[in-house]
Design brief:
This protein has about 180 residues and is an all-alpha fold. It is built from nine helices and no strands. α2 packs antiparallel against α7 and α4 crosses α7.
Length: about 180
């Protein structure tokens, strides 16, 4: 596996873990402000794995792998596809798209997710995407050669041709760089 491929995996793992935690802030604050149960969204996530149970401890335990896998999975996708410029903004916009898929397609089949306040859930997803974008941008900037990320998207081809010296280098070193 090439280094650039590993960078996407590492970026996704770190960004997904951090964003998965931070992204619950809007819905938690909304729940506290409106007198709703702050664990409501967590229990709803657990209901994806255990749809027929109503037991709070079981739903809380089931929520951890569900939320972790969704957070890291989407972060892998975003780490590989977010642009190099405007990464945080693009991540937040991607959060809206993820919300449409998560809440509109998958969530409408789960009664506990359907019962969640839509605005707070969309805000969670926007925060998630923005945090992933910010962390991916930060991690890309810290690497020594940022072009190695782009190299992962190009097909790898072995070449047997010897590279030729062109341009400025040839003008500066005419004896070393002769045409053949």
């Amino acid at each position: 596996m090439r280094q650039a491929d590993l960078n996407y995996l590492r970026d996704g793992l770190v960004a997904g873990g951090v964003a998965g935690i931070a992204s619950g802030a809007p819905s938690t604050l909304y729940a506290l402000a409106t007198g709703r149960d702050p664990l409501e969204a967590t229990l709803a996530a657990g209901s994806l794995l255990l749809p027929s149970t109503q037991r709070v401890p079981s739903l809380l335990a089931a929520a951890l792998p569900v939320h972790l896998s969704l957070s890291v999975g989407w972060a892998f996708v975003l780490a590989a596809t977010l642009p190099r410029r405007g990464t945080t903004t693009a991540g937040a916009a991607a959060g809206v798209g993820i919300a449409a898929l998560d809440l509109g397609v998958i969530g409408r089949r789960a009664p506990l997710i359907r019962a969640l306040p839509l605005g707070a859930q969309v805000a969670d997803h926007v925060v998630y995407g923005g945090v992933v974008g910010a962390l991916v941008a930060h991690r890309r900037a810290r690497r020594a050669d940022p072009r190695e990320d782009a190299a992962a998207l190009r097909p790898h081809k072995e070449t047997t041709r010897r590279p030729t010296h062109r341009g400025k280098h040839r003008r500066e070193h005419p004896r070393r760089c002769t045409r053949r």
